[in-house]
Amino acid sequence: MKIGLMGLGTVGTGVVHLIDQNGRNIEKKIGEKIEIKKILVKDPNKKRTPLAEGKITFNAEDILEDEEIDVVVEVMGKEHPALEYITKALQKGKHVVTANKEVIAKHGKELIKLATEKKVHLLYEASVGGGIPIIRPLKQCLAANKIYEIKGILNGTTNYILTEMKEKGLDFDDVLKDAQQKGYAEADPTDDIEGFDAARKLAILCMLAFNKFVLPEKIYTKGISFISKSDIQYAEEMGYTIKLLAYARIDEKERLEAWVHPVMIRKTNPLNGVNGVFNAILVDGNAVGEVMFYGQGAGMMPTASAVVADIMDVKNHIVIQNGCEEVDLIPIEDTFSKYYIRLIAFDRPGVMSKITGVLGNKGISLLSVVQKGSLGETAEIVLVTHIANTGKVLEALKEIEELKEVEKIESVIKVRED
Amino acid sequence: MKIGLMGLGTVGTGVVHLIDQNGRNIEKKIGEKIEIKKILVKDPNKKRTPLAEGKITFNAEDILEDEEIDVVVEVMGKEHPALEYITKALQKGKHVVTANKEVIAKHGKELIKLATEKKVHLLYEASVGGGIPIIRPLKQCLAANKIYEIKGILNGTTNYILTEMKEKGLDFDDVLKDAQQKGYAEADPTDDIEGFDAARKLAILCMLAFNKFVLPEKIYTKGISFISKSDIQYAEEMGYTIKLLAYARIDEKERLEAWVHPVMIRKTNPLNGVNGVFNAILVDGNAVGEVMFYGQGAGMMPTASAVVADIMDVKNHIVIQNGCEEVDLIPIEDTFSKYYIRLIAFDRPGVMSKITGVLGNKGISLLSVVQKGSLGETAEIVLVTHIANTGKVLEALKEIEELKEVEKIESVIKVRED
Ligand SMILES: NC(=O)c1ccc[n+]([C@@H]2O[C@H](COP(=O)([O-])OP(=O)(O)OC[C@H]3O[C@@H](n4cnc5c(N)ncnc54)[C@H](OP(=O)(O)O)[C@@H]3O)[C@@H](O)[C@H]2O)c1
Ligand SMILES: NC(=O)c1ccc[n+]([C@@H]2O[C@H](COP(=O)([O-])OP(=O)(O)OC[C@H]3O[C@@H](n4cnc5c(N)ncnc54)[C@H](OP(=O)(O)O)[C@@H]3O)[C@@H](O)[C@H]2O)c1
């Protein structure tokens, strides 16, 4: 089997090393040798692994036009030109393995259609959970189930930050700096901390679990940059842990609820034990009940592990690609949740009645209200609602923010008991 | 696709219902209908689900000799005559799906060989973790890895008992009775509570993960019936949780360490959050690192979910069966572990020095020693060793048991920091 590798960064280098290191075993399992014939890169000045010697090219056509290459492995990242290369490879009848979340989340539907027409594989296990096996378990092992809910911790950077904040009592900015130094967060961490990375993976999971296609930018997404030490502490006191959750559910009318949002989860939830850079995906099926997959969602070798498994699968299986259909997203305003709200108010008589009055007018009832130590002029107020309509909550938050008694709404976090 | 179902008990009935309930979806996915043509049972007087009407037979040949039946689904249980029926079905060129741990653990090697010769599938996902997807993830998703360690909570009954003992502060016998009433434990619970069920599943996992065949009865197996409220309490005080762990590891010389034993695990171990009837399997691969699979290891619908996924896979994939080789088990005496030992001694001067003397003579050093409130004539002593040779520990335990100062060794539990 001859491979054209596009990209030799973190993941590409891992793939080259893994095929070298476990090559004998791999050959035994699939009955032939995986040979990396050519490797596409961009920068002529970078030093490469000795295993890449004699294979480097700077021209994608060298791979795409090579008749001997059966499988194109795209690990360059970014939407362009990866999309164009993948498309061309499929058109040429080559199998494609990719780790590219952006391309699959945004263009998966057409690419799957093209692959099905051309009777070739399009495999993308590494794009969702790095090394965590999730795509095959969903497509094969749970094939007899109707899956109706997915909850995931899909981003290692944010989970690392939340874990450190909790364990060391540190504030967001300090942990982020530390994570950047350790290589757990990028120089520009926006994609991770604002939840966009998790939203892309969630979009891919919706495609797999529900056969529903939804663009990641349509998924209501809220990151963790606003979360402070004191939110973590309140959560702890109330018996919860804060996690950045990616959530999707299919309702009785086959409509999709999907969002990425910080959530306080119960200590008894299996996701509570998922710490540091680890990821996990909890799936609910009508026969199997709750199933969870846990592991490293990123990193050189875990990701390479998933990419190479996909390459091996090209030989092992006949092509099955399920199409998927466009779906109506339930507007976030029409969904329901408990909410935790922390705000700073001026410590004046009547402030509490004004705030609770706004909520009452919207029909939102409260589970608990705590007002803590007035900080000179201001006081910190923490409200937890009963299950409420999110649209009403968002309206109420806007009104509360405009009250002259309120300085700032600091945090809005969902609360779940499951 | 025409199916012959052997057995219509818990799992068989689940299979019939699941195919009925999710039939449309299943048909869409595999491109044809699954039709259950005949169902083998034993007892002519039992009431059956209406879905079985007109299909019941009491003669296995009706299924085995039916040329139209492509797939035999064996969910009768017990070693015989299940083994003979499976063998005959494979010889006749029929695919076989089974949930039978005993048959696969004891005869998997020959059956796999036979299936490979006959170019048919032998699928047994449900035999290991009920509904938890584990076989495909191991064989496909982690195919590029060398797997070197497996740790599992493979038995729901014992995990339920340990969880209840901890959460409600109850003693073993009381929880067992309650579990039997609730249907979580059988009338004769020996197979579960003595660890034999876990040992069978571990043997199957060794076959899958390491391609090594080991008979379940050769796996050193210790159950949980000796564990008392006070062990649970000591564990808690020291920061551990007691779990019945099934453990297997391949060493550098390709020898296998495998055992089932109660273990104190750290609260930070992902298995710590696995409570009640849930099972989980933690796999360590050289590329992917630690991966965990979690879900319900038993029950009607979860198990049926795995059986039906196997049936669907018969149509979806070409046959790949990897052979496996006999393996040298590392004798338990040559393995190493920390141990927690709780014993009752007569409260006489010199008793502690005698006990610690025995351990010292065997080269076993101690991490901690606690002697608690002398109970009239006797005192409870809890020892925790550093990592020690298990052979020496077993010898020392024998000598300590023979000391006239010692009434009884109550508990021996492994302790792990990972
Ligand atoms: N890193 C992870 O842990 C991880 C986990 C899961 C999924 N992924 C996904 O895997 C993909 C690769 O990630 P990575 O971390 O390996 O990225 P990376 O380290 O930045 O490597 C990218 C590689 O692609 C090459 N490349 C980029 N644009 C190119 C172009 N236009 N023409 C030719 N070569 C080009 C680069 O060439 P030069 O070497 O010449 O710069 C480099 O070798 C991304 O889609 C990412 O989302 C990564
Ligand atoms: N139950 C679970 O949660 C679970 C989970 C994982 C794996 N499994 C495995 O699945 C298998 C079935 O378990 P189960 O709980 O469904 O067992 P079960 O409820 O005892 O049902 C056994 C069925 O097989 C039939 N049967 C038994 N011996 C027979 C014979 N000699 N000839 C014809 N029919 C015979 C019985 O017939 P009658 O109905 O006439 O008595 C019954 O319908 C076992 O291997 C078990 O280890 C079970």
- DSSP strand count of chain A: 19
Question: Which compounds are bound in this model?
Answer: NADP nicotinamide-adenine-dinucleotide phosphate
CATH architecture of the largest domain in chain A: 2-Layer Sandwich
CATH topology name of the largest domain in chain A, in short, is: Dihydrodipicolinate Reductase, domain 2
Radius of gyration of chain A: 24 Å
Quote the average pLDDT of chain A: 93
Counted up, domains of chain A total 3
User: How far apart, in Å, are the first and last alpha carbons of chain A?
Assistant: 47 Å
Beta-strand content estimate of chain A: 25-35%
Largest interface: A-B, 57 and 57 residues
Structure, explained:
- Two copies of one chain form a homodimer.
- With 418 residues, the first copy, chain A, is α/β, with parallel strands linked by helices.
- Chain A has three domains: 2-127, 3-Layer(aba) Sandwich (Rossmann fold), CATH 3.40.50; 135-297, Dihydrodipicolinate Reductase, domain 2; 334-415, 2-Layer Sandwich (Alpha-Beta Plaits).
- The first copy, chain A, is built from 15 helices and 19 strands.
- Chain A has helices at residues 10-21, 23-30, 61-64, 82-91, 101-118, 126-129, 135-141, 156-168, 172-182, 190-193, 196-210, 229-238, 300-316, 351-361, 390-402, and strands at residues 2-6, 35-40, 56-57, 71-74, 95-98, 122-123, 147-153, 212-213, 220-221, 240-250, 256-266, 278-285, 289-296, 325-326, 336-346, 366-375, 378-385, 388-389, 406-415.
- Chain A is elongated.
- At the A-B interface, α1, α2, α7, β12 and β13 of A face α1, α2, α7, β12 and β13 of B.
- β13 of chain A pairs antiparallel with β13 (289-296) of chain B, so a sheet runs across the interface.
- The structure holds NADP nicotinamide-adenine-dinucleotide phosphate (NAP) (2 copies).
- The site of one NADP nicotinamide-adenine-dinucleotide phosphate has 23 residues of chain B, from α1.
- One NADP nicotinamide-adenine-dinucleotide phosphate is lined by residues 7-12, 40-43, 46, 75-77, 81, 99-101, 126, 130, 298-299, 303 of chain B.
